[in-house]
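Course assignment 3, question 2. Fill in each field.
Student: A.L.
Task: Predict the tertiary structure for the chain below.
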Amino acid sequence: MADEKLDLIVRADRVFCADTGIDGPGAVAVRGGRIVAAGPDVSGDASTELVFEGCVLLPGLVDMHCHPAPSDWKYGIDADELVLPRGTTTVLSQGDAGPRNWAQYKEQIIDASDTRILMALSPALGGEQAHKAVFERLDDVDVDACVDAITQMGDAIWGIAVNVAGGTTGQNDPRVIMERVIEAAERTGKPLLSGVRWDPFDWPLAEQLALMRRGDVVTYCFHEGRGGIAPGDRVVDAALEARERGVLFDIGHGMSSFDFGVAETAVAGGFLPDTISTDFYKRHSESDPRHDLPRTMSKLMAAGMSDTEVFARATLSPARALGLQGEIGTLAAGACADLAVLRWNPEAAPLVDVAGESRPGGCWEPVMTVRGGEAIAATGP
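Answer field:
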């Protein structure tokens, strides 16, 4: 490392990496957009050295459920403007594009963004481009078109997105929609990012979870109500059995899918989420305080998770779920130099769930992001 000049050294009072086991004062050294070394003994001549006191330095955060898309699309936000400066370097789009507009989406959003964006493709032809229920027309749920899109241009397509809540399905039977989605997933070998039906509660959760396969991700996992995973004082057996089969559970906070009571019940019972995500979309863009992944992480700490458990589920765990372990979510030598610097603010605004319930306790706030070796200052309070 000392033989060739480094591009960047980032130092912090705490460096944490769930993958390599680093946890303590140290630094990360970067050259050519890649991590050269990380840990307590990093040294060398660097073009730039940044020092952050009172901060934690993590791998770049990974958001498993987000909505980067053109601004005139239903949920679309600019990830480079609203997400990347807040510590998140990689996001998974939850069905913003479908088979008909996937090529346009890849060119205009994925290829044009500094944020790393992967796609959970909508099985509906137009995805979430139009301002209507995505599955309003059953004929739009085109299995062959979905399979063709993934087969022909699938390098950036991680999997398939489906949400069968009442607001998405119109008058159509959610079971029929799910049958088509699973057929497309089976034919392509792709996992699902799936939002179960809980409003209206007309399809038992156990039946829905029984359809999920190893590697599939159930998002909105901590929503409130009898269709959720913890409608009483414990996590339901169907969720425990699904996890045993290798089904993953994701937060997908959004506007209606994070309840402190449910989260606290699950965490107290040892049912921690596999990944922590924001479901950041257009309505969040002017929120005050900012809706971002560090604040969502803080809510899980307020619900009883430790900081190390939370850090892992915003870095290493989603990287594994996306099949990108070793490239992102880690500070291992050779990995992409994606980093997040966060500072704990004990005086931050209270943490509030979607029902208006609040918890005190402070909040992680972004200070700086490094994407591929390039430093980006945090924006907003």
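Instructor remarks: The chain has two domains: 6-59+333-377, 61-321. The CA atoms of residues 3 and 275 lie 39 Å apart.
Grade: pending
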